[in-house]
Amino acid sequence: MLSYRAAIPLSNRTLARLADLIRARRAERRCRWRRLSAGRQALLVLAHLRNGDTYTRLASGFSIGTATAWRYVREGVDLLAALAEDLHAAVARAGRLAYAILDGTLIPIDRLADQKPYYSGKHRRHGLNVQVLADPIGRLVWASPALPGAVHDLTAARPI
User: Is residue 13 within a helix (H) or strand (E), and if so which, with residue range?
Assistant: First the structure.
């Protein structure tokens, strides 16, 4: 297998912040040993989120198993999700802006046993509907939960 070095267009501050969150979680759980340090785990998570690297590629690049890569990414994403604002705080922040951008996307998925709710007639494929609220610069303010693809964009954008 061939390997190469790659760059992630993110600041060191982002890496340090996520590594601090991971260290705190490990201390809270009294974790004695992990295959990767908190900094390397943070790098793995950011590589997956920013570059879209697959778990297999991440596992190979960080010399860990695929299941371990999945578990590390899941843990990092959960820590980042806990930092996210709730809908009311996001709407209050968006209210202070000159304008906000609301847009939706369909995240493609493989077919499931119960296919009908996930089929989007608009896109003519199966997927999950996610609505995103962004500021004028394009920074994420809020993202809706992933809903079945058959849910209309307006319905998905309404608060739960």
Answer: helix 12-29
Radius of gyration of the chain (CA): 18
Q: Is the pLDDT of residue 75 over 60?
A: yes
Instruction: Estimate to the nearest angstrom the gap between the alpha carbon of 36 and the chain centroid.
Output: 20
Could you report the per-residue pLDDT of 103-127, keeping only the tens digit for each? 788 888 776 666 777 777 787 888 8
CA-closest candidate to residue 20, choices 3, 2, 45:
45
**pTM value?**
0.67
Q: Which of 108, 93, 92 is nearest to 139 (CA)?
A: 93
Measure the CA–CA gap between 45 and 72, rounded to whole angstroms: 7
